[in-house]
Amino acid sequence: MMQPARHPSLITRHPGNPILSAADWPLTVNAVFNPGAVRLPDGTTLLLCRVEDRRGISSLWGARSANGVDGWIVDPEPTFPPDPDNHPEEVWGVEDPRIVRLEELGKYAITYTAFSRAGPGVSLALTRDFKRFERFGLVMAPEDKDAALLPYRFNGCWLMIHRPRTGVGDSIWLAGSPDLHFWGRHRLLMTPRRGAWWDANKIGLAGPLVKTDEGWLMFYHAVRQTAAGSLYRLGIALLDLEDPGRCLMRGNEWIMGPSEDFERQGDVGYVVFPCGHTIADDGDTINLYYGAADTSIGLATARISELLRWLKGHSTPTCEPESVL
Questions:
Q1: Which of 30, 169, 171, 294 would disulfide-bridge 268, Cβ 3.0–4.6 Å?
Q2: How far apart are CA 120 and CA 141, in angstroms?
Q3: Where are any strands of DSSP class E within 167-208?
């Protein structure tokens, strides 16, 4: 029997992983994970980290580094704490931010999970400097999470990837808005593949979409239920550049899974969960910042050109959702 070709190495983990953990924080906390990421105009990398205290409540804390690898300077207190008095949807914390620069507004958009008795929902805030924030409140009602904006309007409409819990399971959807406040035009984008697949049980957006000449590169996390529990891994797909609601290719195989001890052992074992990335000066190297086992933060790098090349040879010809609506 012919043996399959050896899988190319698309993802390279940083040898200093984990790059951030609870021990790096100025206060006693339980875990540091699932950061949003952005490269600021001065070249500094800012991570907006989910930090869970020992009560179980999460806040978002800024950590800055000149090289995006080490020498992190952590804010002395939460950068974006929950505000349950004005936003009761945040009573149990704010989690898992994704950051996108909106040039039209001259601001950064932060989509994050607001957690309350109603469950997780998608909230939105805008900021110019990561010091002062304009909270919009809930824009997607519970249960919904794993959301990020696209960086500009399409035919006058802002677009958001999100992951509601619906009758078709935890699937990836696209929504539109004229003003960032009111959302509609919901389109089902991608569903779990069911059965034995690595992305069989639920899927959701990882970090914000990456614009390339060939389309929007989407990293997504996926869960497969095993006899030992949930297994979180990372895959990629490509969306149409002019119509991101149309999926062009979806990788058949996962490209990153929990293999290191710090990814397998923690509060929630066997999890790699990127929420943010930065692009290097060469325009090709992508730095993925990911939560590991819901406990610490790892860094991995890849080349966008190699990911696109791999996708062409390891994907279904289309990934239109099943006829379920």
A1: 294
A2: 8
A3: 169-170, 172-177, 184-190, 202-205
DSSP state of 20: B
Contact 221, 204 (CB under 8 A): yes
What's the rounded Cα separation, in Å, for the pair 281 and 67? 12
> What does pLDDT average to in each consecutive run of 10 residues of the chain (325 residues)?
60 98 98 98 97 98 98 98 98 98 98 98 98 98 97 98 90 98 96 93 97 98 89 97 97 97 97 98 98 98 98 77 43
pTM above 0.85, yes or no: yes
**The pair of three-digit structure tokens given for residue 182, joined into one six-digit string:** 């009111």
Q: Which domains does the chain show, CATH number per domain? A: 31-314 (2.115.10.20)
Q: Is the dihedral of CA 99, 100, 103, 109 positive or negative?
A: negative
Residue 295 and residue 292: Cα distance in Å, rounded? 6
